[in-house]
Amino acid sequence: MADIAILGAGLKGLKLAHDFEKKGHRCTILESANQVGGALISKRHASGYLTEDGAHTFLMNAQSIESFIHSIPGLSETLIEANPASQNRFILRNEILHAIKPKVSSIIKSKLLSAQGKLAILKDLFAPRMDRDKDISLHDFFEAHFGKELADYLLNAFIAGTYAGDPKKLSAEATFPRLVEYEKTKGSILRSVASKKKLYNSRIISFKNGLMTLPIAISQLLENQPILNCEIQHIKSTQNKWEIAYRSPDQRSIVRSFDRIYCTIPAHKISKLPLEPRIQNQLPNFDSIYHPPVAVLSLGFHNSQIKKPLDGFGYLIPELEKQNYLGGLFISSLFENRAPKDHQLFTFFIGGARSPELAIDDKDQLIANTLPSIQKLLNISGSPTFSYSRYWSHSIPQYSVGYKNTLKSIEAFESAHPNFHFSGNYRGGISLADSVRTL
Ligand SMILES: Cc1cc2nc3c(=O)[nH]c(=O)nc-3n(C[C@H](O)[C@H](O)[C@H](O)COP(=O)(O)OP(=O)(O)OC[C@H]3O[C@@H](n4cnc5c(N)ncnc54)[C@H](O)[C@@H]3O)c2cc1C
Q1: Rounded to an integer, what distance in angstroms lies between the CA atom of residue 309 and that of residue 273?
Q2: Which pairs with CB-CB distance under 8 Å and at least 24 residues apart come from 141-145?
Q3: Cα dihedral angle (308, 109, 142, 404), rounded to 10 degrees?
Q4: Mean pLDDT for the chain overall
Q5: What strands lie across the sheet with 386-392, from one edge to the other?
Q6: 10 Cα: distance to centroid of ligand 1 (angstroms)
């Protein structure tokens, strides 16, 4: 049995503790906030609206994740799947929202791309096998396979909506390693995807009281409850062990020795950990990982204000459309129980790597900046009857071109310090599904 310290009680830290406890280890989670969940913060407001500060949807994309969720007592009953109409995602082009399903046939049928743009997609079928000696951007990778129009409209919008990112800056091999592997082994991405047997029918899920239900439920299963409001005072290496001093919530200073440390705190906070100087000096340059700012704006409207409701997941805005936000989710159409009777809740995302200057911590200004476009595109009249916003100064880590070097420096640190592991969303994927993958 190993004594393991886990820094951070986000989804990643909690799932690690759960898996280690199952293997018979003892885990102590040290969490600086006063609650578990990290980027998962769900709030039921007095008005009846249920908002999320961070993640809004969980793509359950593996049987192991589904089994894990169903193994937690009481969780299955609160799980909700997205309305099937959510298959539709709208993309803005020339002031028209085009409905697209995540299938090539749907892109071909829609009017989002020109005939030329559609034809360019097919050039991927003839793409030669390629082992690139240099990392390229996601934009360049998609343009090479599917043409510029798809890269400019679909990829650009999708990456803004999922990574708050700019595909011209993100690394193809670090962000979508599987696609780069397909290019290497088969050439064509479309032929590679078609040849893969579908092992699992992915679904978008949440919970009746929001996504925060999941970290709370995992933490309740743990033998050792996370230590909240915990301030780490020092971390030292001592004869094959790690010594951590921390201030407990009742202000006592505690010094404990651990066999292993798993650090799951966000990358931009790692350099501030009070590591002994010898170790601090060897840390990878986590501060170089860009986390763009994002503002999340939730707005509620009465049904009578919405002239023509759109059925779907939400809409995304490509950069070329020159709007001052990234898009929005039709959250109360996606999941039941998000808005009071006869009302609808929408969530809009502002800023990201494409336009960081637009993410601000000022709800009224965010509304002033975005409402005219929202009203026009969604056929909504009047002011919102409910509003709520959350500003993230550091949202999602960007796996920028050349990110492999960052990953290599993390591996080098771990080799030099075998019982110190880094395990955050800056490695192995940023999604919630990536965070709960079994050890
Ligand atoms: C605005 C936004 C929208 C998103 N939307 C989606 C989405 O719809 N779907 C999706 O799949 N993913 C989404 N994501 C990404 C996803 O939410 C995150 O990648 C995931 O939640 C990260 O989990 P984590 O446990 O690795 O980190 P975190 O959730 O960041 O948890 C880290 C924990 O470490 C704690 N901590 C920090 N410093 C210290 C310290 N010094 N000592 C101790 N503890 C510390 C923090 O308080 C926190 O609890 C979104 C992220 C953001 C920000």
Answers
A1: 48
A2: 141/172, 141/176, 141/179, 141/180, 141/183, 142/167, 145/183, 145/188, 145/189
A3: 60
A4: 96
A5: 96-100, 89-93, 314-316, 327-329, 343-351, 294-302, 386-392
A6: 6
Q: Is the CB of 54 under 6 A from ligand 1?
A: yes
The best mutation among 265, 290, 291 to test binding of ligand 1, ranked by most ligand atoms within 8 Å of the C-beta, falls on 265
Please choose, from the candidates 200, 182, 210, 207, the residue with its C-alpha nearest in 3D space to the C-alpha of residue 40.
Answer: 210
The single-letter code of the amino acid at 348 is F
**Pairing relationship of beta strands 314-316 and 386-392 according to DSSP bridges:** unpaired
Check if 13 has its Cβ closer than 6 Å to any atom of ligand 1: yes
Nearest to residue 322, comparing CAs of 152, 99, 169, 87?
Answer: 152
Q: What is the pLDDT of residues 78-135, one digit of tens each?
A: 999 999 887 889 999 999 999 998 888 999 999 999 999 999 999 999 999 999 989 9
**How many helical (H) and strand (E) elements, i.e. helices and strands, does the chain have?**
18, 19
Measured in Å, residue 311 CA sits from the centre of ligand 1 at: 29
Does 281 score more than 70 pLDDT? yes
Q: Whose CA is nearest to atom 40 of ligand 1?
A: 32
Report the nearest-CA residue for atom 49 of ligand 1.
38
In the three-class reduction of DSSP (H, G, I as helix; E, B as strand; rest coil), residue 303 is classed as helix
| Mean pLDDT across 401-426 | 96
pLDDT at 416 over 80: yes
Residue 438 has pLDDT above 80, yes or no: no
Q: For residue 228, what pLDDT is reported?
A: 96
Sheet holding 231-238, edge to edge: 231-238, 241-247, 253-258
- What are the pLDDT digits (tens) for 121-178? 999 999 999 999 899 999 999 999 999 999 999 999 999 999 999 999 999 999 999 9
292 CA distance to ligand 1 centroid (A)?
Answer: 14
HEC string for 86-150: HHCEEEEECCEEEEECCCHHHHHHCCCCCHHHHHHHHHHHHCCCCCCCCCCEHHHHHHHHHCHHH
Residue 430 CA to ligand 1 center (angstroms) comes to 9
**List of domains in the chain:** 3-40+211-289+398-435 (3.50.50.60), 103-195 (1.10.3110.10)
Question: How far is CA 425 from its chain centroid?
Answer: 8
- 360-386 tens-digit pLDDT: 999 999 999 999 999 999 999 999 999
Q: How far is CA 413 from the centre of its chain?
A: 25
